[in-house]
Amino acid sequence: MTESDVVSPDNAATENVVLGGRFEIQPRLPMPELSHKHARAFAALDLENLSGKAYALIVEHDLPVREQTLLSLKGSSQSLAQPLGWGSVDWPPAGRARMAIVLVPPPGRRLVKAGPVDIAPLPVKTLTSEFLPSMATLLRELGDMRVTHRGIRPDNLYHDRDGGGWALGECFSTPPGYAQPVLYEPVARAMAMPEGRGHGSSADDYYALGATLAVLAMGNGPLLALTAAQIIESKMELGSFAAITAGRRPPNELTEVLRGLLNDHPESRWGAKELDNWLLGRRQNPHAPQLEQQASRGFPFNGRDYTTLGTLAFALGTDWEHARAVIKDGALERWVRLNMKQPERADAIAGCRVSTGKDGPRMISDDLLVARTITVLDPGGPLRFRDFAAMPDGLGPALAAAMQVSELSHFFSEMIGGMLPAFRVAQEAKPTASQLSLQDVGLALRRHVTHRGPGYGVERCLYELNTTLQCLSPRIANHYATNVHAVLVAMDMEAGSEESPVDRHIAAFLAARLTTAVDRNLNEIAAATRPADAILGQLRLLSLAQEEVGGQLLPKLCAAFFRHMGPIIAGYKNLPLRKRIRQAAEKAVDQGRLAAFLGIIDNKHSRQWDTTHHRQARARHANAQFEIERLMTASEHRQTAADKLGHQWAATLSAIIAAAAVAATMFTKVS
Amino acid sequence: MAVSGNIQGKRVAGRRGTPARRVRGFGVVLLVLIASTVMFALPAFLILVVAAIPPLVAYYIDRDSEKYAAVAVGALSFASALPYLLELWFDGFTIRQAVLTLSDPFTWLVIYGAAAAGWALYFLLPVAAHSYLKMVSDLRLATLRKECEELAEEWGSAVDAPADGE
């Protein structure tokens, strides 16, 4: 149960939450009929259009929402869950900030309840004359906007029996395909983690439409008992059409369109054109399902004999330890060579043990060997590394999910470090532009992963891959800060007595979002030998960030840094200068400008003056000490010197007296 | 090189003359002067002999190479003998007159009193010089200590610490 499920007396007293000065969200008025597993719905008012209907979805996960899709759908029709506005809001029931999306409610009611419920078949006529034409129009509209929905399933459909027609529920509050049961996902994407299924293409939406149509036409009774793995294996072995119809005979009127939409090859799958033609009554012959090549003898693995490469790859991916053994002893390679009659692929499996190219991984670990082998067996499948599995276009959200489980993020690091994306592209005879870009992305991510300093590592990959993800730093996670400005404000609000104001998440977030190059600052933080120097590097990084986004003053953050500046100020040798710097820094703290604060604490001219004058002072002090020492030891020899000087004086004085006496005598006698 | 240096050193010393040679030369000149005085001014010589005794004694007992004792004593001793020499000159410059002068105890008292004053200066001024040197040293020490204190006040313990980059 989530916090939004309960409307406690406290919650009842909760005031409305304003989003962007335009929308008023009412936490006291939940709308369970529009809520789903990952977002709760509440009544909302559009203050600029009080007569218009609106409701708000409060997102309850920390995965990235589909901001690009939100932008694209902003001007769309009501049947596509038109978003009106979105952003983070302080959500009192949760005691933290949440992403809120205000949107136009769909017409009618949700077709079926969410979750594993028995779905009763709809009349074929309803499906052919109402449902499919509406869906064709909506998918065409989405196609025109170059947006994939990735959430077409029965419990995300809305139907207005009063003539409002059919509508698709929202698809932007979760990563693409995240909420889809595997039944509605093409095989390759179904094998990925739910977060890593990727944006996909319109072909994936047509596939989901086909699966939805099949369930609406025949019900889902036999499929309810199947696990996700069984559905995937069934789709691979029988083909999606046969797997989803599950031995039942679909209505004759729908067989053709189901075969077309559920074709497992995206290139042969029906799209907008074929669906429109079918709706116009032009009957077509969909391509027959092309099942995978079957081996003459199955490969035994975990008590089953696998006869296709796809099903075997899927099975190997689900039991990594056992897979390691069968791959290392060469049994798999021999089976592919002899039973599948695919010597090239067998050679490729043998080549998985070898690191190729000067940029390749230095060594092939057992896990990487398994991952490479699975990739060779099923190059169209997700990138798999132990429990981490994501389609190339779903790496970002998958990593966001993996960050919540340290083991998974470690698998991601190993996968990227082992250059699995590039290896996957290398398996393609003629890689497409998007595949080649995956290779570049993989290499860029590898540069981050192999750098262990703050601002790099898996955290940097996370923010580079998810350009709209909020900063997941535990210190400011409650603020749902999605940009540099928000991060700085959140840091200022949370500034306290922490040992290091900038953690790995914040450093990586800033490095990924700032347009200014901060590599030098990050290296400076990483290379710092004293904690104070690292803090100074962090201050430089944040001052750059504040200068870039401008505006917001950060007095509490300045004060937090000031608490750490003791050793830095102590770095100045001159005591009056230290005092002046401390006083000036105290004043700058109140002003809240990090750059000005930094300019006082770490002033080049002051440091130069201090160094130069310290050298001079040291020399003067050393000379004085030497002189004092000399004078102290000279006291022992002073008597000798005094004797000599006294005797000299005596001789001189005697001579002077004598001269005076002679002169006086001569003057007296002669005159 | 060391050998040639020594050779050069000998050559230089030879040109300028050694201290021993110089002393010998000075002794010759002194002997000539004494001989001339004995031959041409015997009365004055008698008085000068009396006046010369204290500086000669000082010369021989002073171990210092500069012989300041002889200078201090001699200067006053000879200066105190000058009135008697002038008196001798104006009273005929005879041996008898010289003997009469020397037979007066006051003459001896004056000449040897002056020599004693020379000795007194010789013994007392080192004490004054010691006080003077101590005072100068103390003043310098105070100045240096104040400078150290001021530097320590301005730079703290860093005044003893190595400079950055050293």
How is this fold's topology laid out?
The complex is a heterodimer of chains A (671) and B (166).
Chain A: H1 9-12, E1 17-19, E2 23-30, E3 39-46, E4 55-59, H2 67-73, E5 83-91, E6 96-103, E7 109-110, H3 124-144, E8 157-160, E9 165-168, H4 187-190, H5 202-218, H6 221-224, H7 228-238, H8 240-245, H9 252-261, H10 272-279, E10 299-301, E11 304-306, H11 309-318, H12 320-328, H13 331-338, H14 343-351, H15 366-377, E12 383-385, E13 388-390, H16 395-402, H17 406-417, H18 420-426, H19 433-450, H20 457-465, H21 484-494, H22 504-513, H23 519-527, H24 531-549, H25 555-564, H26 566-570, H27 575-591, H28 594-601, H29 604-634, H30 638-670
Antiparallel strand pairs in A: 1-2, 2-3, 3-4, 4-6, 5-6, 7-8, 8-9, 10-11, 12-13
Helix pairs in contact in A: 3-5, 3-10, 5-9, 11-12, 11-15, 12-15, 13-14, 16-20, 18-19, 19-20, 20-22, 21-25, 23-24, 25-27, 27-28
Chain B: H1 2-16, H2 19-40, H3 42-61, H4 68-90, H5 95-103, H6 105-155
Helix pairs in contact in B: 2-3, 3-4, 3-5, 3-6, 4-6
What does this structure look like?
The complex is a heterodimer of chains A (671) and B (166). Helix content of chain A is 52%, strand content 9%. With 671 residues, chain A is an alpha+beta fold. In chain A, strand 2 and strand 3 (39-46) form a beta hairpin. Chain B has a domain at 43-123. Chain B has 6 helices and no strands. Chain B is 84% helix and 0% strand. Chain B has helices spanning 2-16, 19-40, 42-61, 68-90, 95-103, 105-155. The chains are: A alpha+beta (671), B mainly alpha (166). Chains A and B meet through helix 29 and helix 30 of A and helix 4 and helix 6 of B.
